[in-house]
Design brief:
Elements (H helix, E strand, L loop, with lengths): L2 H33 L7 H12 L1 H30 L1 H7 L12 H25 L5 E4 L2 E4 L1 H9 L2 H28 L8 H28 L3
Antiparallel strand pairs: 1-2
This protein binds protoporphyrin IX containing FE.
Length: 224
């Protein structure tokens, strides 16, 4: 690979890392809001989901979010193909993060997370927004979509819960390498911060999937 191709590959990794770290922020917000579905009444979750679905600032954020997914996926595929085509160079340019066993499976975990995401968005987002899957509910005299009941109905089905939990675990593998690799691509792989970033990456890759896993499990085995 020539110098300019190498540099353009680094630029792509930089953009991809930036988009990826932004997506992790989304995951945290999504997790916190989803946790509200576990409260005895679905009202807080429905109000929060309504706010997220109608607030103008959040709507702009949503466009950025889908753009972020798009950029992350396209650049991820390009970087992966460039790596496959330039195998010997790859070993020279990759740094400490490449030692992680998860790094070898980034494209595989990415494909599985992508399939999960497509099914999840069809099922939870499009069906609620366009096919009336979330029935109307009145809260304090105002009408909302009962997304809470929609989520609960899905997670009362064991097959759903199993597919979701497997997807969360695979998302965790993807995040584990992706988080630290993202920092490296942003040029933050100084020996001083490396152990901290590695620790944070482990924390993020455990806390996010574990947090998401609690939701279907509590619904399946709880009194909802
Ligand atoms: C227990 C786990 C989860 C539950 C209960 C859940 C629930 C939901 C619901 C109800 C919506 C529709 C929101 C609306 O129409 O306003 C939604 C949308 C979405 N979810 Fe999830 N989700 C879960 C996990 C995930 C995970 C792990 C990801 C990413 C890997 C994800 C990514 C998205 C995206 C991108 C959207 C569309 C954007 C948005 O409206 O916020 N979700 N989710």
């Amino acid at each position: 690979m020539g110098k300019s191709r190498f540099q353009s590959s680094l630029t792509k990794k930089f953009v991809m890392a930036f988009a990826g770290l932004f997506l992790i922020t989304f995951l945290f917000v999504h997790l916190v809001i989803n946790m509200l579905v576990l409260l005895p009444s679905g009202n807080a979750f429905n109000i929060a989901a309504h706010f997220m679905g109608t607030n103008v600032i959040i709507k702009v954020f949503e466009v950025v979010l889908f753009g972020g997914f798009f950029i992350h996926i396209i650049y991820g595929l390009i970087v992966q193909f460039q790596n496959w085509l330039a195998r010997p160079v790859r070993y020279r340019v990759e740094g400490w993060s490449h030692t992680s066993p998860f790094s070898k499976f980034m494209i595989h975990t990415a494909v599985i997370v992508f399939i999960f995401l497509v099914l999840h968005i069809i099922d939870f987002y499009f069906k609620a927004k366009f096919l009336g899957a979330a029935p109307p509910v009145e809260i304090n005299g105002k009408e909302y979509h009962d997304l809470a009941i929609m989520v609960i109905e899905k997670f009362k089905m064991p097959v759903y819960v199993v597919v979701y939990i497997i997807s969360f675990v695979i998302l965790g593998f993807h995040l584990h390498h992706g988080f630290q690799s993202g920092f490296q691509s942003l040029g933050l792989n100084h020996p001083t911060y490396t152990p901290f970033i590695k620790g944070l990456s482990l924390l993020v890759s455990v806390v996010i999937p574990a947090g998401f896993t609690i939701i279907p499990l509590v619904i399946l085995f709880g009194n909802y």
